[in-house]
Each structure stands twice: as C-alpha cells, then as structure tokens.
Amino acid sequence: MDRLAPAFSAFLGAACADGSDRKVDWVLLDNFHASMADVASEHKVPCILNMPYSSATTEDFGIPDPSVLPMFRPFVETFKRCKVIAARSSFELEPESLPLMTKILGKPVIPVGLLPPAPAGGNTQRDDSAALSWLDEQPSKSVVYVAFGSEYPMTVKQLHEIARGLELAGTRFLWALKRPSVAHPDEDLLPPGFEERTRGRGSVVTGWVPQTSILGHGAVAAFMMHCGWGSTIEALQYGHPLVMMPVLVDHLSTARVMEQRKVGVKVRKEKSDEAFLGDNIATAIRAVMCEEESKRIFVANAKRMQEIVADDECHKRYIDEFVQSLRTYKN
Hints:
This protein is α/β, with parallel strands linked by helices. It has helices spanning 5-15, 34-42, 55-61, 73-81, 101-105, 130-136, 156-169, 194-197, 211-215, 229-237, 249-260, 278-289, 292-309, 312-330, and strands at residues 27-29, 47-51, 84-87, 109-111, 143-146, 172-177, 202-206, 220-225, 242-244, 264-266. The chain folds into two domains: 2-116 and 312-330, 3-Layer(aba) Sandwich (Rossmann fold), CATH 3.40.50; 126-309, Rossmann fold. The chain has a six-stranded parallel β-sheet with strand order 7-6-5-8-9-10, sandwiched between helices. Strands 1-2-3-4 form a four-stranded parallel β-sheet, sandwiched between helices. It is globular. Pfam families: UDPGT.
C-alpha cells in the first residue's frame, strides 16, 4: 500500500488545491492503511477508520497491544491517525457492546448500520453455478451450507475432521471448499472415499461460489462457518441459525454473542487438540438441523435477528446520520 502513497498524494494535492471542485472532506480508511493516513494528514484531510468487526470484538479485546500482537501494529498505527471510527454495527443488533466503543477507543464512534449485501435474486451467475443447480434438487430447508471465508487458518487435519463431522451428522450439506495455503499441491484434502459415501446428500464445490445466492436459496437451513462479521450478517439476513467454529480474535467475540442470543451452537473444542473434532462438529450440526426442540429455538432466534438485518429503512437512517455526523465533526 505504501507504493500507492505518491499517487494518492498527487490526487489529494489536486483535490485540495485552491479553486478545485473536487474538495475532499474525509478519507475513509481500512484497517491497515497508516501510510494513507499520513498522506491525508499532510494535506490536512481528516481520516475515518472503517471498523469492519463486531462491536463485541472491541468490548472483548479493546485496542490490541502491538508489542504482544505484532500483526496488529499496522491497525494500531492507522487507528492513531484517524479522527473518527465508523462501526459496521447497529444498536438494534449490538445494544450492549456498541455503546461502549467510544469509551473504550477514546474517539467518536459512529455506527453506519450493518450494510448487508443486496438480497439474492436476478444473479447473472445463476446459470453457471453448480452449487445453485445442486441446491435446486434438494428439499426445502434441508441443507447446511459450509464455508469458512478467505482468512480462516484452515489445515488439512481440520478439513478431515469437518468431513468426518458432516458424515457422522447424516444431514444434507453443501461445502464450499478452499484449498488451505499450508496444503501441498498434491495433497488430498478429503478423507478417502468421503465423497462416495456422502453422494446424494452432499456436494463439495471448489472455487468461488455465489454465497449470498446460496444463503438465499430455499433449500438452505443453516450456515456452518467461522463467525467472520460479514458472513454472520449475511447468514442473519436470511434468518439462518449458525454452527460456529471460531478461531481468530473477532470470530471468537461474534460467536460469543451469537451463542448468548441462542442463534446457533459453537462447536466444542478440546483443549488437547488444535482442531475441532468430527464428533463435536456432528453434535453441533444435529442440534441445529435435527433435534426438534433446539432447532426450533435456534430458528426462532435467527428469524428475530433477520428482522433487524433485513430492515433497509433502519440502515438508511444510519447512513444518513453518519453523513450528518461527519458534517458536524468536520466543522
């Protein structure tokens, strides 16, 4: 990103020049763009830090200490240089943790709403998606969708345990499988015979999949995932209960809140093992998909969350209030 600094500086210089009709009032930054914040400061343009995590993450962990967690040093440096924090959250979804953010961070925090993606429908990828074609053949609300985002620290051992859990659970599943970066190019990602043994009730798809269209499909009943904030919002947008396998910092906080809200089940992780074990994965899937009493509770609570996430008028108000707040802080 540092290599973009000269071009960004030239752009801001022209935009901030006397007589320019492209005046820049704010620069909105992602987590790791401290060099861009330095450029903006040189041109006297204030910065906003886009906080893409749940407010619960801030409540649980505050501002990371880069001396303990060096990977967060760019985030901390960017945070220091920003005047305002934009939080992808809402008081309706996070009534306990969102009000705490300003005190914890020591800077104004403005919620921008949940920013759910546009509802699935009319997807031009539709005819080319093997995943959606397979879902078309499944009964309504019968499939658990399995995906773990782009940053999940997946291992081949964990993939094998997931496969074992899906096989033991006995439910229908659609698995969007991504090859882990630690896997050898010739290494088999699935246990021998797994796809043959689950043929007819399971589908493993590699490569890109249209996730929002999958979540919006009538055959999908639940989402087994890592609890990244974006994927959690997408799941709740369609009222799906969760089977949660959190590992990273923000995933743990989001999973904590979703478990407290009884929106799903966090897979139990044995202290003696680095991976979530297949037996525990199967138990969690059955609780969400098969056991009627727990399933009813999880579905009902996920539907309550859906009412919040799918409220477009509410999110528009947050955006309007965000813009008005920026005018206030600018002045």
